[in-house]
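call fold(seq) -> tokens
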Amino acid sequence: MFFHQRFVPGLAIYSYMVGDEKSKKCAVIDPTRDVDEYLEIAKREGLRITHVLETHVHADFVSGSVELKARLGDGVQVVVSGMGGEEWTPPYADRAVANGDEIALGGVRLKAVHTPGHTYEHVSWALFDDTRSRDTPWLVFTGDFLFVGDVGRPDLLGEEARKTLAHQLYESVFGVLPGLPDFTEVYPAHGAGSLCGKAIGSRSTSTLGYERRFSGALRPRGEPEWVSTLLEGMPIAPPYFTRMKKVNAGGPRVLGPEPLGRKRFTAKDVHERVCEHCLVLDVRPKEAFAAAHIPGSINIPLGHNLPTWAGWVLPYDRPILIVPDDPDDVPEVVTHLLRVGFDEVQGYLEGGLGDWETSGFELGRLATTSVHDLADRLQGEGSRPFVLDVRTDGEWDAGHIEGAHHIHGGTLEERYAEVPKDRPVAVVCGSGYRASIASSFLKREGYTDVANVLGGMAAWKAAGFPAVKD
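ret:
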């Protein structure tokens, strides 16, 4: 049997390729939109992708099923669950399965196991290798139903749906899973860092037996208590999750093999708004952005978390123009954005910010401050800074600067009116990354006296300054 597990950091996505080495038939499970890697692996291994399987309608990234179908043609079959009703059966699917239906790949079979709770239609795929056992599954692809150390959240479709989904999830955990043996290997659709659960472990795989023994989410208890414990401390779901659900339920736009976002814009083009209504996304490091940037641009430094924060803070109704640190970074940035549905990436600033500077155009700057300077100003007699803490609820509860105001960075767009414009604002996060994003947003909204606290709460605590808990 051929097996390949692919991991996308940041969004913490696991997708899979499984196949029969004799027949050369292969299936891709829960693919991301950037499909070249699946095609390259299939070509290298001499495999033929005949099926693309989904576990459910994803909320945190754009599915690659439509893209793979477009690239491979009619020789591939897109298979989804039909058990959530018409609303959750994507129209682009070639086949909608019911509980117990199978997909044959030569000596390898994949059996649909309905495991609702994260979503209504959710299906896990149990894999049988007939050369070893026709009756016992070797492993199971659990999608967002079962993670290492956790289960999927049932609260992404609204409060009313949450009640039904939480009950279904309980039934899936304690009614469906017991039908699979302890030694069955678990391969989930996400790892640590994904917002599709609250306590996902860092290991890429586990076994059902280990999870039954050591995962709190699989510990038997009464349904009300189990649901209450599951939902306690659940992280805020980004608003772009709702958009991704709609995109994946209806079918995303086909991108094609040609690279996107490679058009080059000169500084003069950008200054004269040749890219009309473009949002300027500066992906350089936070220190470079602070020193100089195009006024009104938003800073999301290039890294694994770029797609998550882009989904949190960028509007979907505006085209994007990238300011890179290096032109070679552009393909990676575009891929990050496409994964979360930003299709209108127009291009990038040729020559980088250096071209903008030498053209004599206005520069924006973002003040930075050390935790020592901030502590002195908070104790001094002058104008006391308004400390804006943009970390998560859990981080805030674990300890924060006394007198700070808490707004999760992803919700700042709706709540920035809580931040005064007549006082200096010091923005703090864990290390300075999220604070740079939030600070750039405030600057764009007309705040003039804004500073990023470098090192964030990590530096504050390391310097020995006190943190309080409410």
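The mean pLDDT is 95.
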